[in-house]
Amino acid sequence: MEIEIATIGGYEEVGRQMTAVRAGDDVVVFDMGLNLSQVLIHDNVETEKMHSLDLIDMGAIPDDRVMSDLEGDVQAIVPTHGHLDHIGAISKLAHRYDAPIVATPFTIELVKQQIEGENKFNVNNDLVKMEAGEMMSIGDSGQVELEFVHVTHSIIDAINPVLHTPEGAVVYGLDKRMDHSPVLEDPIDMKRFREIGREGNGVLAYIEDCTNAGRKGRTPSESVARRHLKDVMTSVEDYDGGIVATTFSSHISRVSSLVEFAKDIGRQPVLLGRSMEKYSGTAERLGFVDLPDDLGMYGHRKSVDRTFKRIMKEGKENFLPIVTGHQGEPRAMLTRMGRGETPYEIEDGDKVIFSARVIPEPTNEGQRYQSERLLRMQGARIYDDIHVSGHLREEGHYEMLQALQPKHLIPAHQNLKGFAPYVDLAESQGYALGRDLHVTRNGNMIQLVD
């Protein structure tokens, strides 16, 4: 059976992920993401009102026109998890394909919300829920199957999809860390990865996220970040002024820890910002997290400002606002607080806890620097870097290669500079550039089996 891979997006940058795998006459598309930095660099861009071609020209979504070179029919669109760099272009591109969108329950719900917010295109693709550990037949040949393997990442309900073909499995390995003691969900299913590496014809190709490939050791567990956060929160228990916390709104495990520790130090947690309300509200509704009944979630600006007024009236020392804006996004809650655009007054000595790292990208770094400067100018004390990454470091990559023993490797989720450490690592394991290690670019085709 012919096996061909189209590397469409995410092979020149971190963002706008999209890869298509053709097995015979059947094509499966993995991810359709947004490159957020290409959007943030423009003022007041509303992507939901923009045409896909304009967003492609902007470098914000994948240029999927290369799909016309694939001789086969798209049978499924499979987002791996709910981060925007993996689902943010579905509302712009999915309607071009007569295929269902297949994902885990939490991811499907986030995709549904993306589609509902779309103003330009009618996206009517079927939305199909599939749990980790399940399989689905692809196409009519009866020879190709799609499997979801549970992985741990900085968002719940993430999977690595595996396309089983007569020539071996194609494992799409974006994004994960090896977490054996996560906070809210099951550990990564390494047992299944090892089985896949030894079944049938083994693993034909492994497409791998290279984000932290140049960092030594292993990525710590979310339980490590939780302990660090608890230590910081306990240390400020006796402070009688304002404490504000911020993290990735999609990081439900971290948000739930913040909520719990706020209660432990005698403060009422409150979630503020549209995305904070969206992600936590969705996770609670689907039963992924059990949040306190009296937890307030407010996304609309008027509701947020009303809440801030109440906090100022009843005393900042009684509350922990958990807000959006850890990357310094211009319209996010923490940025507005830093600019003095909310009723919440930051005073000398108030604490701001960043339970997130700045995404290492110039636009984000500049915005985060500006946000911190504004907060410091008002007298805020910054607690930084209370976080663990959602991506594998060096030892995790070695472990995955040992488990899967893939015949071919395709680095992804980075630019050329970001691929370099992974290339070194792969070469140390016997792979060779141009033979079975394929460094590629957006819009390329890789023929694995003729």
**Number of separate structural domains:** 2
CATH class (first level) name of the largest domain: Alpha Beta
What is the name of the CATH architecture of the largest domain?
A: 4-Layer Sandwich
For the largest beta-sheet, the strand count, sense and barrel status come to: 6 strands, mixed
The CATH superfamily title of the largest domain: Ribonuclease Z/Hydroxyacylglutathione hydrolase-like
Overall average pLDDT:
96
Enumerate how many helices there are, as a single number: 14
| Strand order in the sheet with the most strands | 7-8-9-10-11-18
Helix content: 25-40%
Class from secondary-structure proportions: alpha/beta
CATH topology of the largest domain: Metallo-beta-lactamase, Chain A
Report on the structure:
With 450 residues, the protein is α/β, with parallel strands linked by helices. Helices cover 31% and strands 21% of the residues. It is built from 14 helices and 19 strands. A hairpin with a 2-residue loop joins β2 and β3 (26-30). It is globular, with a radius of gyration of 22 Å. The N and C termini lie close together (7 Å). Zn(2+) 1 binds at residues 81, 83, 153, 175.
What is the gist of this entry?
This protein is α/β, with parallel strands linked by helices and 450 residues long. The protein has helices at 36-40, 52-57, 84-87, 90-93, 105-116, 190-198, 222-235, 252-264, 274-285, 301-314, 333-338, 362-377, 394-404, 416-428, and strands at residues 3-9, 18-23, 26-30, 73-78, 101-103, 127-129, 135-138, 144-150, 159-165, 168-173, 203-209, 243-246, 268-272, 296-298, 319-323, 351-354, 381-383, 408-412, 444-449. A six-stranded mixed β-sheet has the order 7-8-9-10-11-18, covered by helices on one side. Strands 14-13-15-12-16-17 form a six-stranded parallel β-sheet, sandwiched between helices.
